[in-house]
User: Fold this.
Amino acid sequence: MRILGVNCLNHDAAISVIEDGEILFAAQSERYSRVKNDSLLNDGLVSEALSYGEPDLVAYYEKPIVKKTRQLYAGQWKEAFTLTNMPNRHLNQWFDKYKIHYVDHHESHAASAFYPSPYKEAVILTIDGVGEWSTTTISIGNNHNIEVLKEIKFPHSLGLLYSAFTYYLGFKVNSGEYKLMGLAPYGNPIFEDKIKQLIDIKDDGTFRLDQRYFNYATGLTMTNEKFNNLFGQKPRNPKNEKINQFHMDLAASIQKVTEEVMINLAKSIHKEYGIKNLCLAGGVALNCVANGKILREKIFENIWIQPAAGDAGGSLGAALALWHIDQGNKREVNLDDDMKGSYLGTEYTQEEIEQDLKNAGANFETLKYDELIDQTAEFLSNEKAVGWFQGRMEFGPRALGGRSILGDPRSDKMQKNLNLKVKYRESFRPFAPSIINEEVSNWFETKEKSPYMLLVANVKKIKQIEMNSEEKNLFGIDKLNIKRSSVPAITHVDYSSRIQTVHKETNPRFYKLINAFKNLTGCPILVNTSFNIRGEPIVGNVEDAFKCFMGTNLDILVCENFILFKDEQDKKLINDYSKDIELD
Assistant:
């Protein structure tokens, strides 16, 4: 039986396809429409999903009628009667001949976390902004069953609290939360007590928000004047107000409070249920710093996080819930997991890529596989910035070596150069290390697999460079240019890194490239950031990749077995992206 799962009309629209419980395809709408966090489906995504065959069933990731009751209760009359509560009208453009099966939003999250996991039994913690009514749920997954046991309901939401500070600091809600997380290590959590005037945290991690400070339940903004008065400033205007120490300290404070809630919840549910495995999903589960701290606390023996933990993953969860819960089908547990490295999107043949490059007017060379790997590794060792377009597109918000920009982690210039000259974004933004799995414990304070870049760990002490007294007294962004380790491009100001372990079973070509770089340099790590610029989705096809290559200071583009050099391209095709990029 083939089931198609759909998420749309909120943010991060996506479609997933499963057949007899196996995941065949999953991708976000934005990669086809080129609209970041696109909420709508489009012909390109639907066509790709239907190329796997006609579905027998179609599942939708939430229940619109229940959601509408919450919006009406909150006085959100306009929202209750917009397209977002009429999915049939949107879905019928492509799926009018199918009956749509509606799955509860948090059940979709829970299913996306548990069913692909490597566990027969697990506690499932889902935390996000809001579904229909739930904002946090605790469930037990056992074989093919999931039972929701507890929930926290709207308007009390850890996700919306974090988004309120995202808004207040001048970043976009539902897309800029990771910026807040990246900014936090530059600050000190001096506003923790003030934030706890907003949120009453119980010992077990449950919480209530004081709604007098917020406007998200009934208004058009996240916060209000009472919130502004508490912290002494109005929300930052990103167009004309630079980030300063106040913003960094506030980011550090809300990050610390978020970690406290998540750790306390994890401790209480482990104590109550005594199950050794934890699965996480929902947008808050993308907070890899908090995830790493839960792991280091050793609360659970094992943790698995859905790589598309946000609403995009709801499309997959809805399909899996329909297969296992509604249809009653058993599951076979894969000891690695069933996500196939999250390489679940579109793939292109050599012939298709060659034709697309010709159509774009590109000059390129074709290399044999081993020669391509060796040359690319050598270019990287010489501090070249490389666009890497290989295999299937990743599902979820992280680039995992399918649609990535790569660099040399040993370079003390790489982080700043990639941020300012390639990504055209804030200089404080950290980059992730992709490391071959067998080497992770030699470079970082962890032995855990982290294939989806969802866990943070510190660089090993032996690799760190201790700051002198003068450097320790610096504040905020002034810390950015201090060399903190032998791999400074992936070492954040607090010596942490968001790690991706690369496995030869799921991405043999990326694994081989990093191994070749190691043979040249002794370093089994590459800088890995998403193949896009600020304000745009990760590239989906060769046309997107070439456009990004020609609009940035990338030196080299590698598409399967084709390699392109910037200085060999037609100068007329160069486009300066930096002039017309929107803030994100």
